[in-house]
Amino acid sequence: MEKRRLGRTGLMVTPISFGALPMQRCTMEEAGEVLVAALDAGINFFDSARAYTDSEGKIGRYISSRRSEYALATKSMARTQEGMAKDVDTSLATMKTSYIDIYQMHNVKNEQEWQTVMGPDGALAALKEAKAAGKIHHIGITSHNVDMLIRAVKSGEFSTVQVPFNCVEQRAMKDLFPLARTQDVGMIVMKPLGGGLIDQVDLALRFVLQEDGVVAIPGMDRVEHVSENLAASRNFKLLTPEENDKLAALAAELGSNFCRRCGYCMPCAAGIDIPQMFIFYLQYTRYGLKTAIPERYKGQAVKASACIECGECEERCPYSLPIRERMKQVANDLG
Ligand code: SF4
Ligand code: SF4
Fold first, then answer.
1. Which residue's alpha carbon is at the smallest distance from atom 2 of ligand 1?
2. Which ranges in the chain are annotated with CATH 3.20.20.100?
């Protein structure tokens, strides 16, 4: 299978690699099946996070015995030196490995967080120590904020950047990727399928892979996803004008106001499963599932009508989605 060089890390990885965020939705057995299927199919780069609940543990349990076959990345939301040092050790133990190829600062989103992580007692200091000790090999950063990642590339401290990029969110292509290439910084693309909502998988992944040197990490939580996603790189061809038009129409339909299922808004003060409410709403309005969705919605322990409009979720959503307004719409349409 084709491999791409991940910038100055020098790692040669599959252009379609493995995003482990959805692992947390799988049972242990399902997770094991998907991880082993991905490895057997030739995927050689897995990306997880401390924040993805038991995803690191599932990687440790099911594929750590084959550690030499893959490169491993994970990330932590810790912002202080002490917190990051602890998280690196936890990740090593949880993923049952003596080293992690890339350890990333997870979703550094604003000036205040940037100042903290880069400061004297900040997370970067811990990552540099971990690198000197051989616990990690490279330092990376992730963010939904392209300006933050541009700044990270310019700082010279990071070997990789991880950013959302898909047919709806295209800014990285204009401002970030050209700069990263000049600095030989590896480019990891999260949410190439918009968090699972872009259903034209082949077109959407080929759209991303058209960008020279990028590596996409679609989330996979079913064995079928492995072959479906890999097909895009195996049969890679540039998009035709007709295919581009098809994706543009899809992007226009989704707009920018859709939930990527990242879960950063959780927990909800009222116990609502916020991403699930967005999914119900989309399936009800866009896919016309006018009977099935109300039936499934009835089974929710806490419904959208329980929203107390505290607004805490909106402060945490990296896409600034109008969650309170959407909860009202769901409550209105689905009860
Ligand atoms: S605004 Fe509503 S949905 Fe958001 S955290 Fe508060 S109660 Fe939950
Ligand atoms: S509402 Fe925002 S934070 Fe919550 S899952 Fe969706 S995109 Fe992520």
1. 307
2. 4-240
Nearest Cα residue to atom 3 of ligand 1:
307
User: In one letter, which amino acid is 194?
Assistant: G
User: What is the average pLDDT score of the chain?
Assistant: 93
Least confident of 71-75, 82-86, 273-277: 273-277
Ligand 2 in contact with 15 (CB < 6 A)?
Answer: no
Cα dihedral 317, 322, 323, 328 in deg (nearest 10): 180
Instruction: Name residue 152's amino acid.
Output: A
CA of 320 to the centre of ligand 2 (A): 8
pLDDT of residue 93: 98
Ligand 1 pocket: which of 307, 314, 328, 330 to mutate (most atoms within 8 A of CB): 307
| Predicted confidence (pLDDT) at residue 121 exceeds the cutoff of 80 | yes
Topology of domain 4-240, per CATH? Answer: TIM Barrel (3.20.20)
Q: Tell me phi and psi for residue 325, to 5 degrees.
A: -65, -40
Q: Does residue 61 register a pLDDT over 80?
A: yes
